Protein 1
Amino acid sequence: MATVVVPTPATRRQRKAWRGPWRYPFGLQTFTWVYLIWSIVPIGISILFSFNAGKSQATLQTPLSLRWYSGRNKSFPSVLHDPILHAAVVQTLKLGAIVTLITIPLGVGFAIGIDRWRGRTSNGFNLVMIFSFVVPELLLAVALYFVFLQLFKFVHLGSEAETAALVVWNISWPAIIVRARLVTIGKSFEEAAADLGASRMSALWRVLTPLLLPAIFASAVLTFASVVDDFVLVEQLSGNGGSQTMAVIIYSQQHGGGGGPALNALATLMLLFSLVVAALGYGAYRLMTRGERGSTTEALTSIAGM
Amino acid sequence: VATVTETKPAAPDRPPHAATLKPAKGSRKSRWQARSRQDRLDSWKPRWLWASLAMPGSIWLLLFFLLPFYAILCVAFGTLDPIFQSPVPIWNPFAWDPQTFVNVYHELSITFASPFWRTVWYVAVSSLLSLVIAYPVAYFVTRHAGKRKSLYLILLISPFWVSYMMRMLAWIDLLQTNGWVNDVFEWLGLMNRSTPANWLGGHSLTVILGLVYGYIPYLIIVLYAGLDRIDGRLLEASQDLGFTKLRTFWRVTVPLSRQTILAGMFVTVLPMVGDYFTNQLLSARKSTTMIGNTIEGQLNYASAQSDGAAASVILLLLLVPAMIYYVRSTNKASRENA
């Protein structure tokens, strides 16, 4: 549908400023599209292969079917009927939920506390938190492996160790995002609450928390997605089977030569979970920041942790 | 700072507007007004609230982040059980035994040398390649996407939501000997069907492709966020003062985004150094092993575990300068924003 857009003076000025007297950078645009195609099309193809009629991972075999999702063939089990794949789906969702539920309160409290409680101790902890964000995951995994093996022997490798590790690995999401939001909010709302007679507790609960809600939500979405995607920590700390997530199963089966469209189906399900969570997060973020300045791009970048 | 009892403004469960309706009486009111706003906020009750809010997270970080890195040192400086050959950590730093480091240092020059230098080489090439691809894309989307910015952002962010394993799986599918990449090469007349290229058979090129494909979404997000913060008026000013667009780019945009580029490089380099799964999935040959594979492999054998710990410590020490730089620059950026 063709619509005629009459540029308002503001947009015309803006556009002139960006374009200047020079032409539109078609070269850059082409480059961007080539990149986007390169980054997205392979994923689409891998989703397509998950509907293969045969067991090839390299070619499309029609007619497309759901046999790798729910088929009952014993020798080529589907995600639904292969006990290992099925268990991986359940473990991933469980771990994602538990880790998010622990990480978010810890991280949000940490962000508010560190931001308001100025001093050497708080600076130190903040530094530690940022280090936990940048340290290579493998090194953290090795370190935690030794701790659970030699020191905290009561934390068994498996779901317990995975949870402890994933919480520490993801705590920086709420800590960083909520703290950034705190900085943007500023102190004026709290000062107003103080002037109006609120105690610190009630200002925190009735004024600050509602304002922080979008950031809390965005970080919850990121934490969940990051747990679903996590590979290194879970692989190193999963012990002897039973507590492996989808990512670890995809790696170990593909690497072990047991690949097949069932793994593509598993990966597609993983993508589905992430997309549902992302869409929910985006919708909720828009809903919560309704009436605020800023727009779609703002919500999009927040949900991606920028 | 005054004591808490003096400044108690209102009962906690009073509605927020109560104070305006019923102002506090007498001298207490005047003292209340005399104090600065900041003071009032600081002396709110209870004072320990902030510390107690931060405590649970801090304790978790202590137990599962700082302590593990101490434990890794204790294992690396520890000894081996004489019977089982399993590592025995030495918790007292004054009794640390550097023997393992001597061993690892020798291994570094023999068996570890090739994975180590290969890691340096792979990471350097892949991160530079990522930058060369990511920068123009991020630049285009920040400066020229116009009304379609949201669409571009959705497309740029979408790989971020796809699991890393799935993205690798996608290329495993495409790069099989009878896969679609070979089909395209054959169709272009560059390849003979009878001798298909075995992309997954230990090619450095494939591993580098995998690393770039795997980590570039993170880099683009960092670059986009950084470039988006550059004040457009500076670019306008530069053009008003006679710079061409290209010169504006080189002399204004690039210098202003130097911090962002460095941050983006750390975002790709640090995880790439610890990567051991990309090359395992896309090649699984000894000719493409990286330092991550060496460390990960040593965890599987009790007798090699302390060597693994020592190698991790060495790797960590090599990366600490980069991490400190990154932490300092992000700290500085957040202070400037505040």
Protein 2
Amino acid sequence: VRRAGGGAWVAGALVLAFLLLFLVLPVGQVFAAAFVESDGTPTLGHFGAFFQQGLMREAFFNSLLVALLSALFAALIAVPLAYFTVRFEFRGALLIQTLGVLPLIMPPFVGAVAMQLIFGRSGSVNLLLGEWFGVNLPLMDGLAGVVFVEAIHYFPFILMNLTVALRSIDGAMEEAALNLGCRGWRLFRRVIFPLAAPGFAAGASLVFVKVFDDLGTPLVLGQTNLLAPQAYLRITQVGLEDPLGYVISVIMIVFSIAAMALSARLLAGRDYATTQKGGTALQRRRLSPLGALAAYGWIGLVLLVVLSPHLGVLLLSVAKVWSFSPLPDAYTLEHYATVFQDSGGMIRNTLLYCGLAAGLDVVLGVTIAYLMLRTTLPARRWLDWIATASLAVPGIVLAIGYLRFYKGVTLPGGDVLLTGTWGMIMLAYAVRRLPYALRSCVAALQQLHASLEEAAENLGATPLRTIRRVVVPLMAGGILAGFVTSFITAAVELSATILLTSAESQAPMSYGIYLYMQSVAGRGPGAALGVLAVAVVALGTYLSHLVVERTQGRLAPAASRGSNA
Amino acid sequence: MFKRPLAVAALLAAAAATQAGTVTVVTSFPKELTQAYKTAFEKANPGIKLEILNKNTVQGIAYVRELPAGQRPEVFWASAPDAFEVLAGLKLLDNVAALANKSAPTKVGNYPINDPQGRYLGQALAGYGLMWNTRYLAANKLPVPRQWADLAKPVYFGHVATSSPSRSGTTHLTVETLLQGEGWGKGWTQLLQIAGNCAAVTERSFGVPDGVNNGQYGIGLVIDFFGLAGKYSGFPVEFAYPDVTAVVPANIALVAGAKNADEARRFIAYTVSQEGQQLLYDPKISRLPILPPEAMGGKAPQGYPNAFEIAKRAKVHFDSELSESRYNVVSAMFDQTITFRLKELQAATKAIHAADAALAHKPNAKAAALMKEARELAYAPVVDAAKVADKEFLAVFAASKKDAAVNKRVTALEDHWNSSARANYERARSLAEQALALAR
């Protein structure tokens, strides 16, 4: 850690300005309702109204329970997947890791409908179980249903971050442990997993906070006794400006930040950095035939479950009528024909907005991570906390905040409203997905030993040059993971999109899916557009992999080959 | 580095520029409907372009409200009458009384088709009814329901779905119709019995027809076009109006401070004209015209429902002032005692059904007394008829919740309803279980 120089101050000020302009001030203006009387005098009475309700206390504990259990089950899915594919010689490791990201790209509504068609009360699984064994598993019922869906939706957060972390462990550590006679489960538990802990914690805390603040899944499953749905139901009630909704949102923000701070504390005071980035990574081992069978079997089963919603969307997109039967009645390609007519612009818009937003996110993410871990800038942790708080801001609140805060602001040299441009949609995406990129960048930097930078500076490199030629290339894996997560989750963002779209020509694909899914006849085309969205986003992800690898190769050939082998 | 912001700004400007003569319509209606109107209107009025902006009702209101005058969309077009009341309250609507179709009746049943103050016009009619999945009913060996009261029967336990009055204006109307038709106490009892049989109270009103279409629920309480559109799209579903139903208009209005008000007036007049009304007969749209069939130029399809006949059949003399006066109370009661306590209500209802079945085989006086008490606990409303007629009580709910003191009073009441509902349902379940034990 070095002292904060002029550059750090400038960078910190820029990041802070961005967060203030596009998160704190617009959202603060909306949330002010939680703190004032109808005539504008400040009050804390609304918080009193919150705490006196038994339902709210119940909702809080339910949210907490669901978030904890979801993080636990997500870890159970993700840790073996990450460990097997990184540690062992595994056929199709890349394929597995690519497929493992897909659950995050679950288009709104389509994904929920598909889940119901597969796992619901009258879904394929239960219809078949009923036919064969006469049983019906309540997979999608109650809080357990929420945990089930959340875990298989969000485990990629852990998978991606943990994979990157495992890859950057210095192989010498493992060799040393082996030489000292440590192997098997003990080696994993005492050496490998602890060294990868920043990545795991980054992913698990994201899952926890994301689930805690998640709205879509509980609403689709009809679970209203959780905090996020309670806030949403009150904010979106027609004609009723209910301050309690904003009170709940404020409480969720405070809690999310506290959770993040706690996870940071747990990691604090330990050193996860290893120096030999350019050297050997963890050695890949061969699995015994029996072990291979078990590993492949387990991974196959997990992938089957977590990818079944996508299978459902695929089936829905080619189904004529699918109702109360394990499989659709008849198949057709006409939904794709419908969609191809008017989605060209939408695909382009999605790629443009999400690409720019994710790019902005990793720039901000790297900057914040660097300021936080490598400088003594005062109050630097606040940048992290403010950025993380956006997880708990409902999309509709952010969008209302933008419309209100930038009301009447026009682009220079015209009467075009700033809020009428797609720039607002892109910025909303960037702000809402910043926490994902940020966690990945922080984890990547935590694993990087400061001595490498010191060496570069001893050799005469300026701090900026050190960042460019040493820090960023060595963080590339984490940056890519952040970019990909931001990009693909932005592609399926809905609530802010609907409100901020002010012309059909600037609508992204998520808006198109929403539009179709509003009507009975639109389910097929909606699903078809959902499949296209998944395909486009997956392609975008793959291309960004290529770009990063190429840049990395140019900047630091030796290092990249070593750590990506 | 510096070239990019400029290029981005230029792109932004190009994308946001709108053509002259463009009418922007904010609507919650599905694409099939808006596309049909766009195509027909643009053909009839070359030179005017229609830009459809699809947003759900709440987001539509927020969007209109947050834009400055002169930059707002021209037309607001949606179902829920309360949304238009909110916009009118914010002075965001211009008077459109002059655009009304003169051949339309003033009322359907007892409900005015156009806003009497001329702030918005009825554009299509819709009634509430029952929709069911025929495969689901066959697989679960369930009879076809005809009336609301049927849904309270034990056979339908766990097979019904509805939305909540706080989420959907039409659900609110149905609930209010039931309360006015049966009286406050009896109406709530029936409502609670039906709710006890519900598998879910969905957050979006579209969640109900969607769930019935894909077979998740057997029977749904839905607005007619959802049911009819599902049927005409080939799903194994049927729809019927029960005797007690509310027929209400979906509305269209002119937003104040819009750019192209004249073109917008042309569009609004078109949607309520005979030509515009005929578009509603499209099977994918399946909505009821505001004109009686004889005024539709002989285009009415054979057997198409007649909104005015359905409204006439309805026994309820709908009092919209009464409905308005207790709007927030009914919504809050429904959410606190049904939506948020559904799990406990379901459990109580299940236990009551089970005990009833056992007692039918083996009557037992003591058990019957327990059951009477259980029923009262589970199915009596938390607010009685005298209280809801009390002006002072209603005033609490009508006041602005932005005042902390009001908010505290309201939430304290809501909390009381919620916790007593929970305690009552749990007690009812245990009483019913005792009765069941006695009947064994």
